[in-house]
Amino acid sequence: MKFPFLASVVIFLLVLHHNLRKGTKIGKKQEDSFWKKEQEANTTRKQPMNDLVFISFSAEEFFPLSLLPADKVSEFISAYPQVKAILPRFLQLSEAKIVDLSCYTNTDLKFKYGVANFNLLSEYDENYISLVSLLQQYGHCLFEAGYADAALRVLTYAISIGSDVTETYLLAIQLLQQANDKDALNEVLQKASSLPAKRSSVIFRKLKESGLSVDLPHSV
After folding, report:
1. Could you tell me the residue ranges of all domains in the chain?
2. Cβ contacts of residue 82 below 8 Å, gap of 6+?
3. Model confidence pLDDT, tens digit, residues 7-30
């Protein structure tokens, strides 16, 4: 009576061992492939970057004086001291080169544009990450202060330049629902659904968890 049980255990262990060895081989193969590609990327010569899409950011359009009643600006900045740090950074970014390179890995960038351009490209991408992060912080401050229209202007701009910050989408969708702006809401939802699958799924999962009722695009 014990033999069938023992035999099944032995077979299970053999299958498990085979699968573990197979998984190890696949992992080793993928790792070797990555390092081979990385080595090749590190020897790629400098390439033209004339296909880069630069983001033109006008800081003045987002300063409190452009978004709020003049007599409310001082009160807003006093209530939200973090804005004092955001505004000078906006000015710096308006004079910097900004490119969204989130669709590329570091290896891909070196392959496409050459290792000599990598540090410059990293700077462009870091400027972009900084911009969408600051826009989220700024938009949230405006929302908390009760300036929904100004907050929405900031947030939808961030979305228009490809931001994948989850909080930006959640707050923008909330405000658009409150404003009953169905066309703009649908546009934001389409933007969210067009993001890379991992980011898009997080946004729509968070939307569901937050209780925001939206008609999701068919592609999601």
Report:
1. 40-145, 164-220
2. 137, 141
3. 666 666 566 665 656 556 556 556
